[in-house]
Description:
This protein is of the alpha/beta class and 515 residues long. Helices cover 40% and strands 16% of the residues. Strands 2-3-4-1-5 form a 5-stranded parallel beta sheet. Strands 11-14-15-16-17 form a 5-stranded mixed beta sheet, with helices on both faces.
Amino acid sequence: MKQLPIGIQDFKVLREGNYIYVDKTEHIHRLATTGKYYFLSRPRRFGKSLLLTTIRDLYAGRKSLFEGLWIEDHWDWAATSPVLHFYFDKINYAQKGLANALVYDLNRKAEHYGLTLAATDYKSLFVELLEKLAAKNGPVVLLIDEYDKPILDYLSEEDLDTAKANRHILREFYGIIKGSDADLRFVLLTGVSKFAKVSVFSHLNNLNDLTLHREYATLTGYTQTELEHYFTDYITAAKTALEISEADLLKTMKDWYNGYSWDGEHKVYNPFGILNFFSNKAFSNFWFSTGSPRFLIEQMKEQGVYQVEDIEVSNTAFERFDIENLTLVPLLFQAGYLTVKSSNRMTGEYILGYPNLEVQESMYEHLIDELAHNPSRLNTGRTIQDMQRAFIRNELDEVRYILEAILSDLPYEVFDRKSEGLYHGLVHLIFNYLGIYAQSEVHSSKGRADAIVETPTHVYIFEFKFDQSAEAALEQILSNAYADRYRSSKKKITGIGVNFKPDQRTALDWKVAHL
Length: 515
């Protein structure tokens, strides 16, 4: 039984060790034989580094590493090329400064190939290295991993000057590539973000962007077919450990870790999440916990945006990532917290939403904790599940108690009438999170109920007010006939008007009526 390649980002290490490799070489062959300049944006821990090291070893002619893979019989192993592989996670720009770090790295790469460079600045060194290496060993394969990291590391307001300085350096550095066409055989840049073309790639406008390309939607990540083919033994072990059927296991795995898509059609699993699931044989937020979304949460709070399901955007929205104009939706999408749910290729319109339960549940918890002023970030998920159990048992007093407990920790600024949106945002987040466990509907032919929770026996219709009255909230439920659509279900229908009193934050004004 082969090992799970958790944290393995180097193809050579993976293949020489006893690790599972999900064969992506047919995709790589298509890239190598149909074009030359490429760019790919994918979230963190999605296989970008493994992809680049695979391409590195392919062009280096290391045939033994590819035995048994699709490309073994479809590649000219004699036609090797020198490879320059820049991995910005290993370039010490934090200590040296980006310009000095590039100078050091370029000289180190030259030494590896037995070359001596005369230039002293990073631009001239890059040009000289490409020219001399191509003259000595043939056209160069250029691979750049995490091309955007020296910018993304400094997006906080206090570090923004560093981000701008690094952006300028990278713009000049990447600009060398376009003028070095004769010295290059293949180029691929990867990263998390896709900066506006006028920002980083203004001097490099000949890249074929694979980010939303339908043919490369499964270039990274695991498809359902790949999961069931390569991880058979681990699926068997997991269903045994969890004591469930294989069908139930696969469905739950899909709900938790599948759903990432860049064309709205092909869906893949996040490799890091699914590998850790197989290792732990337990469902948890493995991928989400490896990175802090605090910057994004702060942006959502600042902009008053808490509902990001079913957002409709045009394809140009994905290119609006620039440090002078950080737009929330591209940030969430490129970081992996939103994905393409559907797309219209004729109009270029996309519907975005959370990819799966891992991301959805974790984002709700972080948002609720942020808005409810809960810095410890403990037990939010359990609290919501307690509320769900109270609904199922028809224990409305317990529901009220839990909701009051969450709202009681609201920061004082919520008591300002101008901050009413904070209260409404938090309430809606709580019920959206609850919707993971209990069916949630909000639409009505005569209006929109604030929240509807449906259990096997009951339908609870909520209307929320701020500094008004529970009676007014309940009257809105009645006058808009929110209950009508549920009459045929034969379930007991309950209307609940809720008013938040800013001067009595520990108690909700609450009115219940059986409809």
